[in-house]
# Entry
Amino acid sequence: MRAREHTDQEFEQELRHLREQLLLMGSHVEGIISASLRALVERDSELAQRTIEADRVVDRLEIEIDGLCLQILARRQPVASDLRFVTMVLKAVTDLERMGDLGVNISERVLELNNETPLKPYVDLPRMADETQMMLREALDAFVAKDADRARRVIARDQIIDDLYAQIFRELLTYMMEESKNVYRATRLQSIAKYLERIADHATNLAELVVFMVKGSDIRHPDSRSEGDKN
Amino acid sequence: MKRRSRRVGDVALSLGTGLAAALVLLIVVVILGDVVYNGAPHMTLTFLTQAPRDGMTAGGIFPAIFGTVALVVLMTLAVLPAGVATAIYLSEYANPGSRLTRLVRVAVNNLAGVPSIVFGLFGLGFFVQFVGAGIDRALYGGQRVFGQPALVWAALTMAVLTLPVVIVATEEALAAVPRELRLASAALGASRLQTIVRVVLPQALPGILTGAILAISRGAGEVAPILFTGVAYFLPKLPRSLHDQFMQLGYHVYVLSTQSPDVDATRPILYATVLVLLLLTFALNATAVVVRSHMRRRFAGASS
Amino acid sequence: MNGDANTDAAKISLSVRDLIVSYGDKRALGPVSMEIAEKHVTALIGPSGCGKSTFLRSLNRMNDLVLGCRVEGDVRLDGQAIYGPGVDPVEVRRRVGMVFQKSNPFPKTIFDNVAYGLRIGGMRDRAEIAGRVERALERAALWTEVKDRLGESAMGLSGGQQQRLCIARALAVEPEVLLMDEPASALDPIATAHIEELIHELARDYTVVIVTHNMQQAARVSDYTAFFYMGDMVEFASTDTIFTHPSQPRTEDYVTGRFG
# Structure
């Protein structure tokens, strides 16, 4: 006797549309991250510029999704799992939008770096970027699959990012102490690493929201999160 | 084509029913007209307050009026409690599907269909000859006091006759009281008796009065049941106790039209008597209707 | 059948154990067990015919008035069994009052309506009756509107006022528990809001159990919610829990509108 879909088909459609838009926004953000790193490695300033502009789509989606959520809250008065879903989406778009902005910041640093000769071969940064992107993708997949365990694994991976950042920072520090001419490029690279680390934090937030949506339990407070600190 | 025949049908029906209604009106007007025309002049105050004289060819009809009123009053006193109580039992206490309930209803329905003359015979056999004679043996040492036609037996016979009317009218009035009111009363901690007395009966009162009206109307007019149980065609004195006989308007009309030695002299008296009988009936009805509508207004807006 | 709503913190007013209600041979409800917290609002929700109203009526023995209805199990008011040999249902109904879906004031005066329960209970002192009537009307948030026309017929009041009058009538006998069967379903939104506000106030002094088919109303008004489905009580928990993360999938489906 148990039906999976809402009796009200229109409501069902609205929720489905909301889910699609969120995933769309996520894929755009993914694209921005990967494009900005490619622009760094391939020294492609045009790509970097295009990436900056691509963020506008992300911003537009944020506004659209916020509007959809408000509409659903007002007209449908959702409860239980529906309520958790809508509130989760409202918060998730904030994280995604910030991730997009951080991607833009990366591209801006790339533009600056492309005017100079590369400081060193980029090994760790791409690795960090891959890891970050995977976290985002996994968080979104966990969202689609309503898989809380998968989401928790994302949260665990944040430690890897933090370790990578520490490593990159130490390395860049050495470069800076070696020669003052390196400082400009090193700081730009350190900023990029910082942005990636923050993107990973936002991906972790998304994962926590997925757990809340699926389980109904808020896991944010007992695990108080601060930069570079994970238990 | 179809529309035309439907219109013709409509017109025919409205004409037909209108004619039927007009016919009824005509009949009533003719009867009333005849009676009023011929009877009113003779209906004087002395007529109403004197006893008949000279073998009913002169005088008044006061004893008959008195007797009719006494009969109706006694009948009402007997039938209302019994009828209302039975209706309350059927409506509020009885289990609707039980055999007893169905038996009672069948009995009531059959009682309603019994011809009036049969009631008269029943009254004679049961009340006069059985109960009356029994009372005489027990209280009067065989002397004939109650074991003969009497006011009380006529009244009781009439009460039995009108019992089904009162029961049915009361039951309908009780059923018309919305169930929610009974529930509300019960939920406040009222016993069933309290609910009936404080909520159901007060609201059913207009309907119960309707039953009373119908009973009274019948009581004023029926002659057959009282033929053997108490009415007499001439009495020198008014009935002074329950075991006396009495005169009655309806029976008096019968007597005047069949036993009169002088038909011409009797005719005006006859008409006037009929007029009085009709007026009495109308007056009784009107009183009850006024009382009923007054009670309805007090409960104005009540859901029913 | 989850009967634990963690009402331990609150005192228990009504305790139900293995309640079964049948009409003839057909079982309509149960077995149900739950504990209703004192001076809180407990809502009973569920689709039509799920048994919530039957359950409600079992709490003040109004099911006794339904022909062919049989009640088994144990219901205790403040520790005392309300079913059982020697228990007078009339006494139970004085301690557990009820307000119905459609307001049903008697066709009497406003005063007589509220005083009805007192009078049938044997109260005679005019001053005492008048005092109780006034207090009851005040508690039902109706006093200021009717204090100058207590002698008028109750039928002249508006729908919302009549419902509040019925509440006052029930409160006059000072029950411990107030049962409400969809009290606002026949009212417009503003009158409904008044009733809901009133329920909130009443819970300070009385235990309130309310049946409603309006989920948002249950969410607004109650502290605990029980979800009934097809004669079973599926879940009983705090209202917050039921409406943010219910534990039973059937509850989840019902409150989100996936069926019913």
Summary: Helices of chain A lie at 9-41, 45-76, 80-113, 124-145, 148-178, 183-215. Residues 225-231 of chain A have pLDDT under 50 and may be disordered. The two ends of chain A are 44 Å apart (CA to CA).
